[in-house]
Every structure is written in structure tokens, then in C-alpha cells.
Design brief:
The complex is a heterodimer.
Chain A (H helix, E strand, L loop, with lengths): L1 H12 L17 H25 L2 H21 L7 H18 L10 H20 L9 H4 L11 H16 L3 H11 L5 H8 L3 H14 L10 H5 L1
Chain B lengths: L7 H9 L4 H13 L1 H19 L9 H14 L25 H7 L8 E2 L4 E5 L8 E7 L8 E3 L3 E7 L2 E3 L2 E3 L4 E4 L4 E2 L2 E2 L5 E7 L3 E3 L2 H6 L9
Antiparallel strand pairs in B: 1-2, 2-3, 3-11, 4-9, 4-12, 5-8, 5-11, 6-7, 6-10
The chains are: A mainly alpha, B alpha+beta.
The complex binds zinc ion.
Zinc ion binds next to helix 3 of chain B.
Chain lengths: ~230, ~230
């Protein structure tokens, strides 16, 4: 335990005001700008999604595509296990956007942000692709049988959801670089804690505790107490 | 009341999509019982959406990609999905499967297809088909009042209690409780006296009995993944 505490406190001391984006290397100067734009427009993406679902609104779909397709393509190209060409990534983007088109009527704006919903679609498409690559029989259990994209039935008040989203976005910018790095690797590169630890040459417990610290900073409510055994395994 | 949950790191791997398929089956089955973990996962997916939306590794996409997508959409005359239940939530027809997580009910398919193998007087195992081969997924049934001889775990083992309850040296486990045993963990579970205990078990390497009799029985535990 003492060791863990030491690790945590040394992380705190390293908490300078480094920007989240500094961690990742190839930064587009527009990064921060993008952050602010999406903050303002978050709501309009769910309106577009509703319009697509309710009346197959093609203009809304084109707007939605222009915003999310490059992000989704980046998400696919970034993944460790999928060395793919730009054309293959385009095909996967089409697969995701086709799901957006056909499933938009199921989207419930009071339950999740448009970006969350699209993320689950892109994530499942990536899982599908990896399962096919490793020759899983994906007919016995479809990816959506295991990774449901349906939201919790009890509606989170819309305002509360927007507040949470804002909080996460703001806290993300201020994460210490070593925590931002772990969140980045786990979410965008799709790596497990174990793989992240190997690549960064860090103890597994350190990677796990950095993630937990990051989640705590983003006020992602952690409902279970972490015991030491959890962190060290 | 569920007392044992997947830890936050496991839930994060589930939400970000890197968790091994077999382990994800156990986590998703747990969430059928657990509101708390469903909410937690929702928050973790919100983070995923935020990460995606602020993905600085954007990749240029040619406008022809949208055009050809619209052509595809026109060509198949896509029927917009109505609000039907997703495949995983199909009504379970077999009454004895009622109350089970949809993903488990789907793997079982038809109760009569389960092939129970008796390993010891109190333990039976029925393998489940999952379409992957990295881990063995099966149902374990401990007869009412039965005790499973002491065994250890060579790989990670996830257990989700589906019906009944069992106890071991460290606690009592009820439906919905989620346990993760690490390699080297030893325990000897026993079921409650009044009813059979049925668990979903995901094991990365077969369990090993630590007693002599258990060692003799061990070969039977090598279920072939299906
Ligand atoms: Zn739970």
C-alpha cells in the first residue's frame, strides 16, 4: 500500500498544467478550437440524430457525417490490432454510418449524448472486425448480444447528462499527461491495461491506478472501492 | 443485493471494447442483474464519446465516401429499423430459462441441448458455445448442500451466480454476484443446503483440483472450447 501511495503522490506532484493534447505527439493546432466548438454544438448533434431517425433527414445526415466520419476514421486507423489502408478504414466508416442511418430512430436524446451513441456504434464495429479477424464465429453470439448499445432504462435527466458531459470534457483537458496518456491508449487505441503496461514499461498496478485517478478527476463516479489486490493484478 | 462487481478497470475495458470476448460475456451477464454497473458503464461510454469527439488523430475523408454511402442507402432501400427488441433481448421461451441474462439464454438456446457432465458427486458442468476459443465458457451446477473439493485456478476465472447461492472461505455469493479468481487462488465452494447453485463460468485455463482424488479427476475438466 505504501508503494501505491508513493506512486500516487508522485503523480500529483507531476501535475503541472500540461495540456491534454501535449501527450499525444501529432497535434493539430486546431485541437483546442475543436474542443470548444463541439462543446457549443453538442446539442445540435443530437437534434440531427433525431431528425435522421424521425424523417430520414439527409441534410442532417450529411452534417453528421462531415463531423463524425473523420473522427471515426481516425479511431479505426489508430487501433493497434488493425493495420489497415485508408480505403479499408473508409469502408468501416461507411459501416458505422450505415448503422447510424438505420438505427437513429432508436436513439433517445434524453438518455445519451450523440457522441456517446456514435462511440458505441464505432466501438462495436471495431470489435466485430477484430472478432472476424481472429476467426470467431460471430453468428453464435453477435457483438451486440455482448456489447449492448441500448441505454439504461431509467432516464438520466437530460440536464444532468449534459452537465456530466461538460464536466468530463473540462476535466479531460486538465488531466496530468501521464493519466491522459492512459485514457488515450485505452479508449482510442483500444488496448488493455496489460498491453498498455507492457508498452509503457510500467507495472500493471501503476497503469490501473492512473486510470482510476483520471476517472476520479473526471468525476466519473466510481461506485466500488478499489482494493489493493485489484490494482496489483 | 449484489455485493460483488467487476472492478472499474474491467468495466473500462468492457466500455472501451478491449475486454476479451469471453470475459465480456460474464460482465454483460452481470449487468443484467446490476443497475449500478449499467450506470457506471454508461458513464464510461460517455467518456468514450468525449474521447472520440476530441480525437485529435482525425483522418481526412474524401467526399466520395459519403456519396457512395448514399448510393448504397438508396440501393438497398434501407428499412429504418423500428423499435424492435435487439436480438439479445428476445423473449426467452423456455420457462426454465426465465430470469437469465439474455446473453446466457441465447448461448443455452434450448435447455434440452445442454450436455451436463458430472465431474464429482456435487458438481456438474455443461459447456456453452460462444464462437471463440480463448476461454472455456460453461455452466456449473453445484447440487444443494454439495461441496466442491478444493481447487486452484491456473488462469483467470470469472464466475457469475445465476441461481441459488454458494459460499467459500471468503463469503456468500448470491445471484448477480461477480467473482474473479486469479491464478493461484484456492477455494472450496459449497452450495446452500436448500437449492442447487448454477453459475456461469469463464475460465482462461481449466481449474485444477488440489486434492489427490481431484488430481485423478482432472483430465475430465479439460472441456474443449466450443
Ligand atoms: Zn455490478
Amino acid at each position: 500500500m505504501a508503494k501505491l501511495l508513493r506512486e500516487q503522490s508522485s503523480e500529483v506532484s507531476k501535475t503541472d498544467s500540461s495540456h491534454f493534447n501535449k501527450v499525444i505527439g501529432e497535434i493539430k493546432p486546431a485541437g483546442e478550437q475543436r474542443l470548444q466548438n463541439t462543446a457549443k454544438r453538442t446539442d445540435s448533434w443530437s437534434l440531427d440524430l433525431v431528425a435522421i431517425g424521425a424523417r430520414q433527414d439527409r441534410e442532417a445526415f450529411a452534417r453528421f457525417f462531415q463531423h463524425f466520419a473523420p473522427l471515426i476514421k481516425g479511431y479505426f486507423l489508430n487501433h493497434q490490432g488493425m493495420m489497415m489502408s485508408s480505403t479499408q478504414a473508409d469502408e468501416l466508416v461507411q459501416e458505422v454510418m450505415l448503422k447510424v442511418w438505420t438505427k437513429a430512430s432508436k436513439y433517445k436524446p434524453e438518455k445519451s449524448a450523440a457522441s456517446t451513441w456514435v462511440f458505441t456504434m464505432a466501438r462495436n464495429t471495431r470489435i466485430d472486425m477484430l472478432r472476424r479477424q481472429s476467426r470467431h464465429n460471430t453468428e453464435v453470439l453477435e457483438t451486440e448480444d455482448i456489447w449492448a448499445t441500448e441505454e439504461e432504462e431509467s432516464p438520466v435527466a437530460r440536464l444532468q447528462m449534459q452537465r456530466e458531459q461538460k464536466l468530463v470534457r473540462e476535466a479531460m483537458v486538465d488531466l496530468p499527461p501521464e493519466q491522459a496518456q492512459i485514457v488515450q491508449i485505452i479508449y482510442l487505441q483500444g488496448k488493455t491495461h496489460t498491453v498498455a503496461a507492457e508498452e509503457l514499461n510500467l507495472p500493471l498496478g501503476t497503469v490501473k491506478s492512473r486510470l482510476r485517478l483520471a476517472l476520479a478527476k473526471m468525476k466519473i463516479q466510481i461506485t466500488q472501492s478499489a482494493d489493493e489486490a485489484d490494482l496489483l493484478t | 443485493m449484489i455485493k460483488y462487481h467487476p472492478n472499474i478497470n474491467t468495466l473500462t475495458e468492457y466500455a472501451s471494447g478491449s475486454l476479451d470476448t469471453a470475459a465480456a460475456i460474464a460482465v454483460s451477464a452481470h449487468m443484467h442483474f446490476c443497475h449500478q454497473c449499467r450506470k457506471q458503464t454508461q458513464d464510461l461510454q460517455l467518456l468514450g464519446g468525449t474521447m472520440l469527439d476530441n480525437n485529435i488523430a482525425v483522418a481526412d475523408i474524401d467526399s466520395s465516401v459519403l456519396h457512395s454511402l448514399m448510393q448504397k442507402i438508396d440501393a438497398v432501400d434501407t428499412k429504418v429499423e423500428t423499435k424492435v427488441q435487439p436480438a439479445g433481448h428476445k423473449q426467452v421461451t423456455d420457462a426454465s430459462l426465465a430470469g437469465l441474462p439474455p446473453v446466457v439464454a441465447k448461448m443455452i438456446g434450448n435447455r434440452n441441448k445442454l450436455k451436463w457432465k458430472r465431474l464429482t458427486k456435487s458438481l456438474q458442468i455443461a459447456p456453452l458455445t460462444t464462437g471463440q476459443s480463448r476461454a472455456e465458457v460453461s455452466l456449473h451446477k453445484i447440487s444443494a448442500g454439495g461441496k466442491v473439493m478444493q481447487h486452484d485456478h491456473r488462469g483467470q476465472e470469472y464466475t457469475l451466480i445465476l441461481k441459488g447461492s454458494f459460499s467459500d472461505e471468503s463469503g456468500v455469493y448470491q445471484p448477480g454476484d461477480f467473482l474473479l479468481k486469479q491464478p493461484g487462488d484456492i477455494h472450496s465452494p459449497y452450495a446452500a443446503a436448500n437449492r442447487d447453485c448454477i453459475c456461469l463460468t469463464v475460465v482462461e485455463a481449466p481449474v485444477r483440483f488440489t486434492s489427490l482424488l481431484g488430481k485423478l479427476l482432472n483430465p475430465f475438466l479439460r472441456l474443449s472450447p466450443a
